[in-house]
Amino acid sequence: QMADPFLYNTGERSQYGCLGHEVQIEHIKAYVCRPSFFTDKAVIVIHDIFGWQFPDIRYIVDLIAGHGYITICPDFFKGTDPWKTTDHWADFADWMKDHDPMKVDKETDVVLKYLKEQCGAKKIGIVGFSWGGMAVHHLMLKNPQLTAGVSLYGIIRDSEERYNLLNPTFFIFGEKDHTISYDQIILLEEKLKQYCKVAYKIKVYPGQVHGFAQLKPEDMKPDDKPYIEEARKDMIDWIKMFI
Question: pTM of the full predicted structure?
């Protein structure tokens, strides 16, 4: 019996009181958190399979906003149900057909327009976790409006066009993530060296499993805490370097 790959333990979770608010942008709902001062810098956060309302992802939005960015997590599932812990793993492939992380372009364009026209954003970055990490990888190949990206443990699908990134991209992985093999990471590194003309970085965090970087402080295990905090700092530092 293989463990359910994406289902990192969503059980024992503390509640989270969000700092931001929800908005409606055209056909999409989104969660937005702004810093206390004016800024023309923004970050889009792409949620994992548990969707835009999941407390962990809202915590990340608030965390990034705290570093001085207008931060937004749109509902990339467009009102359809996210994956639930009660869903059956056998149905995951079918669920994914209707939730393709490579089909996020239209929604991203809607959000980019909102950030530029309604929020005055001039530089916009993107960060995504798991399902969202795959979406970020896709968007950094397709959308030149995104100044920098961070893809956290998005499964790598090998094909030649996966490596010609348009803008600086940082790939974060956990060493013990059984959804992504070490061979895939090595291949990514080799191919980026060959094709990528912009800044990129790949980093693997010791002992970490899928989903490690989005835990709230009170949900972290003491042994993992330093790596989670390091990954988050690395993520913010990458954004700050370019945005």
Answer: 0.94
